[in-house]
């Protein structure tokens, strides 16, 4: 695994989503820690969290407005 490349955009996105739901594989986690940049994953986590909160808020507002 020492010669694996840096995680690309989609690998970071998939790792962020998998980590958020607690299903990150050991192999992907090791790749991210060895070859990833922490600031990229922090930014991805903040963006994912903001999108998740906005999605839940929008769904709740949509449901409440139909009543």
Structure in words:
It holds the Pfam family DUF2970. InterPro entries: DUF2970. Keywords: Membrane, Transmembrane, Transmembrane helix. It comes from Pseudomaricurvus hydrocarbonicus. It is built from three helices and no strands. It has 67 residues and is mainly alpha-helical. It has one domain (9-65). The longest helix has 28 residues, at 38-65. The chain is elongated, with a radius of gyration of 16 Å. The model has no long low-confidence stretch (mean pLDDT 89).
Q: Kindly, what is the distance between the CA atoms of the first and last residues, rounded to a whole number of angstroms?
A: 55 Å
Alpha-beta content class: mainly alpha
Strand content: under 5%
> How many structural domains does the protein architecture include?
1
* Mean pLDDT value: 89
Number-wise, the strands total 0
* Shape label: elongated
- Tell me the Rg in angstroms: 16 Å
**Portion of residues within helices:** over 70%
**How do the SSEs run, as a string of H and E?**
HHH
How many helical stretches?
Answer: 3
* Unreliable stretches: none
Largest sheet: none
Q: What is the subunit arrangement here?
A: single chain
